[in-house]
Amino acid sequence: MKTPPSLPGGLPLALALALLCAPAARADDDEHGGRASRVPMLAAYRQECASCHIAYPPGLLPAASWQRLMKGLERHFGTDASLDAESAALITRWLSANAGTGRRSAGTPPPEDRITRSSWFVHEHDEVAPSVWKRASVRSPANCAACHVGAEQGRFDEHALRIPK
Questions:
Q1: Which residues contact 50 (CB under 8 A, 6 or more apart)?
Q2: C-alpha triplet 150, 152, 156: angle, nearest 5°
Q3: pTM, to two decimals
Q4: Domain region containing 41
Q5: Domain-embedded: residue 6
Q6: What's the CA gap between 146 and 70, in Å, rounded?
Q7: Which residues form the signal peptide (predicted)?
Q8: What are 12-58's pLDDT values in tens digits?
Q9: Exposure string over 15-34, b if 16+ CB within 10 A, otherwise e
Q10: In the chain, how many domains are there?
């Protein structure tokens, strides 16, 4: 019997190809947002949305929330974040295609479509004292980058926290 081809280190070539072709895990499969950094960031999303806040990983909300948020950009949390129709459609499609479906969002939109009001967010941050959110260096629960060192890259690992004074 002929030995199947393998890569240096002994990994069978067929297995390596299968792993390369496998679909990415959903963002909400990793309790620390691990897929977020593996989803290629849409340039238009980064350019438009990250000009005011971090480009939140799309897996943090279900598709219905992203669609409502994108339809209401003229009143986006107290700001007019309107976009041209083409950019809005492109970003909406990308957010919807990469939206959360599992443990993080369970397909259930959080109150007001706010990531910070979702049940998983509240659970994960229940030990944070209300006074921490009010610090000038933090300002609000939506300012992920204040504490999560890798937030800009979509990483929210609790082992890489820096709680500002």
A1: none
A2: 40
A3: 0.74
A4: 27-160
A5: no
A6: 25
A7: 1-27
A8: 544 444 434 333 334 444 444 444 446 889 999 999 999 999 999 99
A9: eeeeeeeeeeebbbebeebb
A10: 1
